[in-house]
Amino acid sequence: MDCIQCENCKQNTSTYFCIAKNQIVINENYVQNVEKSRSGWKKGDPNYETHRRKIKKEIEL
């Protein structure tokens, strides 16, 4: 059967349902998004408090 332009195959998903074929298709061109990692000081970091105090002193000067 011919494609009916449902645009399911053009979404970036690992699998999609093709209405024309009436089946679930595995996307060969799937690209997994890389999550952004936050670089910087977080409260869970052991040196967070010393870093925060150091920055606070620099700002006050």
Q: Can you give me a brief rundown of this structure?
A:
The chain has 61 residues and is an alpha+beta fold. It contains 1 helix and 2 strands.
Could you explain how this protein is built, in words?
- The protein has 61 residues and is an alpha+beta fold.
- Helices cover 21% and strands 13% of the residues.
- A two-stranded antiparallel ribbon has the order 1-2.
- A hairpin with a 4-residue loop joins strand 1 and strand 2.
- The longest helix has 13 residues.
- 0% of the residues are buried.
- The model has no long low-confidence stretch (mean pLDDT 82).
Provide the fold topology.
Blueprint: E1 15-18, E2 23-26, H1 48-60
Antiparallel strand pairs: 1-2
How would you sum up the major sheet? 2 strands, antiparallel
What series of H and E elements makes up the topology? EEH
Mean pLDDT across all amino acids: 82
| Major sheet: arrangement of strands | 1-2
Proportion of strand residues? 5-15%
From the alpha carbons, calculate the radius of gyration and give it in angstroms. Answer: 25 Å
Shape: rod-shaped
